[in-house]
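hiii, so i know i said id send this last week but things got crazy w the move. better late than never?? heres the sequnce for the chain we talked about at the cafe, plus the structure i predicted for it. fair warning i was half asleep when i ran it
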Amino acid sequence: MVRTLGLTQLTMIGIGAIIGAGIFSLASAVARNVAGPAVLISFLVAGAASLCAAFAYAEFAGMVPKAGSSYTYCAAVLGEIVGWIVGWDLLLEYTAIVAVVAIGMSGYLGFLLDAVGIHLPTWALGAPGTGDGHRVDVLAAAICLAVAWLLTRGTRTSARVETVLTIIKIGIVLLVIVVGFTKINTDNLTPFAPFGISGAFTGAATVFFAVFGYDALSTAAEESVESRKKLPKAMMLSLAISMVLYVLVCIVLTGVQRYTDLNPSSGISSAFAKVGLNGLANVIAVGAVIGIVTVTFSFMMGASRLWYALSRDGLMPAWFGAIHPKRKVPHRATWVIGVVSAVLAGVLPINAVAELTNIGVLLAFVVVSAAVLILRYTKPHLKRGFRCPGMPVVPILGMVFSVWLMSFLEWETWVRLGGWLVVGLVIYAAYGYRRTRRVMPGGSVDLDALDDMSDSDEPAPDPEREPAR
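okay and structure toks below
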């Protein structure tokens, strides 16, 4: 792969991953069903938990300039099998996140099509169970495939598109905030927590996937310039900017329209239309579509780079991790993820997919926070471009927050995760364990070797090529 991403592009990829369905769709669904105006508390709690984990990710990103994110970090510190479990877990979660945000996009795109007189047939408007006559969410599936095509055009081209779209999205969000504050009716904000404080905490577990994205950003380590310095900065900047925007939009959303009347699929546009701002509602819908495309881009990019790292290390077949000879991207993995996410987006409701993504990422956060804590004391000499503050309190808080949020998820979500991890262990025992010792003698990642690696080092060889024994 080729190093082309600077601090601005990395930050935009991070914001692109964080700001999307959380603002435009999930906030209204959570406010209406479980939190009320206290959805603001839901985002603050989720953001606090995310920040603790972000510090841990930033330290690793400043130390390990390799693709793979949580997989690489955990394999380096806790061993190959732990790294594989986390990598296998996140492969599903990233793909599911792509599906979640695509579902969120389809509601706004449908809103726009209705505004110009284009009406899709009922069967194409959503997944089974989301409405009478719904069979498949055609718009959500289409956006997954379109983003996969964009990503296979090459990192430089796709990152430029992502940067432009993210800037447009931020501009529209700021417009929502400025205009929305002039339309707030404070009566709509009472009662503030109609479902109790437990409802706000339950909402935090649901919206959590909307306040991370830096972990997907870290998978671009081998495509970023001076990754040890710039990746940690991009992580912190993207999370800080996104949280400010989330808080302000939550106040506007529940202040402009009473939480019981919010539309769970096109919340902000519908709320502004209700107060007579139909033109702005259409602009917001355009922003929502753009915003959700950028999230889909960031996480599909993260999933394909994770798959590349797993294939390169021998834990999965090398065919999936092949790099396109001209465009220098893992094109096969990208298309597989695009097709799978399109199927998930087309046939599953948003809440089921959102909870599945959350539990997997929270599990990864627990393991990464533990790994950075262990590594600080076992290998203090390693070169670090960023140091997690507040040792050992911050990583411990990251673990506690994550486990606590996991406890609010439905038992069915735990069963699905358990089933996926069992499948992963079977694959590791039958294929990965033996194969990785041929591709990568010695097993897990060698941190001391990584410590000597420069940010400008040549990337690892194509996994199609078997290294000499």
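btw The mean pLDDT is 83. thought thatd interest u
miss u guys!!
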